């Protein structure tokens, strides 16, 4: 009997100690880090792109002693539990910063209630009510939702080769001084309005022309391994170019800080056509083709003087003596951009295809561009000005050196919470650089372009041509 009593007491004390021992919640929630990705991908997830919140989260990880090599302040992702109703705040289960993750117990222990309230949508982040509780929970900071159909092993943003023309959205609208683009539906159809001829180094109004282009994919990529990065194997476009009259000695407008242009587009417009063809067996590589062909030949035609840009007659250009207009002197020269075209080989390269956040595109090929000089004269008998190519000592600028034929371009894009990109192009012996960076979230950017001839500057070129523009990017 005594033996049974001792055994009973031992069992009681063992049960009492186990019952009173605090539950290790951390061990329970640690299991979230090993959840099956196929299950976790259906939880609400988003990427934080609000700079202030990024800094606070990053500093929390640093303070807790996480390896800084594993941390990435621009790659912060939040995992939350599904909500019973839209007006309820999120219950945050995990926050990752680069390769490091923090579960809900660690979050509650080490992050302030204010920071958690901001992230969950329970508290106002911006405005005069910052820090106060909301009646209807929503997130009023910069974030990017991760669609539930994107597996956790992929980057939260679908890989795209042109961030300002995304392929992973249904509708898109981009506006800047350089270009206005509109995407319709899921077909990949784009309508674009561009100013300048970047492919030969004459960006913005320096080329004297603008363009309307319709772009449409023609062949779907059926390769499951590369389809997420390259949804279409053929992207073709067709359109037209027309001459613009802006950018000529305009000192009284909002763009007076941009250099005036000296180059013109010709009358009659141009036909534009091109395509990117991805090789089916190697979709990352392909051939690109572009051409812009004038629709009207040059001859003697009347003009409106203020709509063209000129430079002095330094080469003693005279109207052909057999021309009836030879009695009128040539005082100025007008340069007109004519046919241009490129044929290049390209290769798209991601540093990590599983996490396609760092993208490069390389182009190498042949370039052609032509600029024709025309003589300007004024028929004083009828007070009308003309341009003519029926004159002597006029120059035609087209490729005559090896460097004139070369086209080379490298583009880099970082696709993280703060996507930015840069490119450097050599064409027509002109170096053209471009960079864009986000200013507010992923919808408002700043884009800049800079051109610098690497040979002697031609009469119609500027030694330096720099333009910066805000970019509005809206997607649905």
List the helices and strands and how they pair.
Layout: H1 2-20, H2 25-30, H3 37-40, E1 45-48, H4 51-63, E2 76-81, E3 91-97, E4 100-103, H5 104-110, H6 113-120, E5 143-145, E6 172-175, E7 179-184, E8 189-197, E9 202-203, E10 209-220, E11 232-243, E12 263-265, E13 270-279, E14 282-294, E15 301-303, E16 311-312, E17 318-319, E18 332-350, E19 358-379, E20 384-388, E21 391-392, E22 396-397, H7 402-405, E23 406-414, E24 420-427, E25 430-440, E26 444-453, E27 465-475
Parallel strand pairs: 12-18
Antiparallel strand pairs: 1-2, 1-5, 2-3, 3-4, 6-7, 6-27, 7-8, 8-9, 8-10, 10-11, 11-13, 13-14, 14-18, 15-20, 16-18, 17-21, 18-19, 19-20, 19-22, 19-23, 23-24, 24-25, 25-26, 26-27
The order of strands across the largest sheet is 6-7-8-10-11-13-14-18-19-23-24-25-26-27
Query: What is the averaged pLDDT score?
Result: 84
Total count of strands: 27
Largest sheet: 14 strands, antiparallel, barrel
Radius of gyration equals 31 Å
Which secondary-structure class do the elements indicate? Answer: mainly beta
The proportion of strand residues reads: 35-45%
Give the helix level as a range of percent: 10-25%
Outline the low-pLDDT stretches: 1-35, 150-157
End-to-end CA span: 78 Å
- How many helical stretches? 7
Principal-axes geometry comes out as: elongated
Oligomer: single chain
Describe this structure in words.
The protein is mainly beta and 476 residues long. Helices cover 13% and strands 42% of the residues. The chain has 7 helices and 27 strands. The strands form 3 sheets. Strands 6-7-8-10-11-13-14-18-19-23-24-25-26-27 form a 14-stranded antiparallel β-barrel. Strands 4-3-2-1-5 form a 5-stranded antiparallel β-sheet. A two-stranded antiparallel ribbon has the order 17-21. The longest helix has 19 residues, at 2-20. The radius of gyration is 31 Å and the shape is elongated.
């Amino acid at each position: 009997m005594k033996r049974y009593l001792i055994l009973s007491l031992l069992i009681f004390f063992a049960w009492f100690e186990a019952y009173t021992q605090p539950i290790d919640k951390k061990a329970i929630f640690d299991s979230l880090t090993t959840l099956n990705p196929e299950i976790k991908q259906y939880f609400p997830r988003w990427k934080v792109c609000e700079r202030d919140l990024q800094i606070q989260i990053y500093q929390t990880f640093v303070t807790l002693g996480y390896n800084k090599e594993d941390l990435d302040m621009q790659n912060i992702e939040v995992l939350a539990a599904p909500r019973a109703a839209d007006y309820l705040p999120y219950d945050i289960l995990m926050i990752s910063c680069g390769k490091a993750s923090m579960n809900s117990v660690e979050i509650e222990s080490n992050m302030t209630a204010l920071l958690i309230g901001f992230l969950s949508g329970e508290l106002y982040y911006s405005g005069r009510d910052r820090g106060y509780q909301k009646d209807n929970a929503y997130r009023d900071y910069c974030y990017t939702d991760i669609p539930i159909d994107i597996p956790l092993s992929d980057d939260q943003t679908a890989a795209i080769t042109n961030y300002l023309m995304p392929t992973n959205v249904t509708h898109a609208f981009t506006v800047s001084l350089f270009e206005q683009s509109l995407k319709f539906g899921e077909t990949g159809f784009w309508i674009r309005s561009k100013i300048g001829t970047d492919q030969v180094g004459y960006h913005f109004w320096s080329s004297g022309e603008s363009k309307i282009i319709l772009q449409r994919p023609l062949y779907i990529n059926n390769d499951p391994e590369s389809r997420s990065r390259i949804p279409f194997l053929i992207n073709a476009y067709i359109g037209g170019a027309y001459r613009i009259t802006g950018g000529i000695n305009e000192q009284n407008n909002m763009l007076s800080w941009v250099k005036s242009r000296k180059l013109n587009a010709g009358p009659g417009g141009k036909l534009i056509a091109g395509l990117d063809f991805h090789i089916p067996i190697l979709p990352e590589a392909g051939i690109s083709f572009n051409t812009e062909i004038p629709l009207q030949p040059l001859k003697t035609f009347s003009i409106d003087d203020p709509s063209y840009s000129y430079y002095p007659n330094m080469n003693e250009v005279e109207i052909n003596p057999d021309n009836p207009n030879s009695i009128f002197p040539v005082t100025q020269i007008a340069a007109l951009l004519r046919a241009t075209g490129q044929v290049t080989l390209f290769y798209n390269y991601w540093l990590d295809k599983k996490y396609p956040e760092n993208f490069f595109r390389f182009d190498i090929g042949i370039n052609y561009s032509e600029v024709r000089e025309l003589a300007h004269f004024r028929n004083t008998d009828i007070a009308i000005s003309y341009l003519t190519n029926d004159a002597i000592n006029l120059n035609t600028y087209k490729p005559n050196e090896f460097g004139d034929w070369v086209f080379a371009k490298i583009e880099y894009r970082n696709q993280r919470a703060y996507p930015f990109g840069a490119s450097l192009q050599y064409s027509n012996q002109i170096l053209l650089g471009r960079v864009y960076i986000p200013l507010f979230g992923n919808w408002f950017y700043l884009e800049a372009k800079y051109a610098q001839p690497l040979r002697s500057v031609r009469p119609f070129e500027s030694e330096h041509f720099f333009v910066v523009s805000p970019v509005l990017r809206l997607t649905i």
